[in-house]
Design brief:
The chain is mostly helical. It is built from ten helices and no strands. This is RNA polymerase sigma factor.
């Protein structure tokens, strides 16, 4: 029998199988259409004398599971709320702010710069920084506070809103360590 004719004969069975998989007539029709398109374009690879019905059902089943895996990774976002959360602020200004920050960081006294880098950039606790510096915890806290105050003066920063919410400036403003791979000094 002609493979093209045989392919068409199996459409009702494919539709029934697709309906059992999807539970929705429209989705089943789409799935059958996709399976038939794949089979039609691959008809030259079908081996005459083998089971056409099994071949078509395999194509349909594989298409169903491929679509299922794809949809599992997708998130429906009808109102655009998820997409709005994925936006990011431009970082051009952050790079310029960071360059300014690095320049004025070098103007700090070395003890203040060291304390600020240990706490703000390296993520050490005040106790750990005090041990590294060989001084009291209160001394480290004082140095960090004076360093932050002096940096704000040198950069003419009056509030945290003057630094953009980008990945470079964020750690400077919040006092949290930057992500791995970024260093203040």
């Amino acid at each position: 029998m002609n493979p093209r004719k045989e392919l068409l004969e199996h459409i009702p069975n494919l539709r029934a199988f697709a309906l059992s998989l999807t539970g929705n007539a429209d989705q089943a029709d789409d799935l059958v259409q996709e399976a038939l398109m794949k089979a039609w374009t691959s008809l030259d690879r079908f081996q005459p004398g083998t089971n056409m019905r099994a071949w078509l059902f395999t194509i349909l089943r594989n298409a169903f599971y491929s679509e299922f895996r794809k949809k599992r990774r997708e998130v429906e976002d009808a109102d655009g709320a998820m997409a709005a959360k994925l936006s990011s602020h431009p970082e051009q200004l952050g790079h310029m702010d960071f360059d300014d920050f690095r320049r004025v960081l070098d103007e700090l006294p070395s003890d203040q710069r060291e304390a600020l880098i240990l706490i703000g950039a390296s993520g050490f606790s005040y106790e750990e920084a005090a041990e590294i510096c060989g001084c009291a915890v209160g001394t480290v806290k004082s140095r960090v506070n004076r360093a932050r105050t002096r940096l704000a003066d040198l950069l003419s920063v009056e509030s945290t809103s003057e630094y953009g919410p980008d990945s470079i400036a964020g750690p400077i403003v919040s006092g949290t360590p930057p992500t791995k791979g970024r260093s203040v000094a």
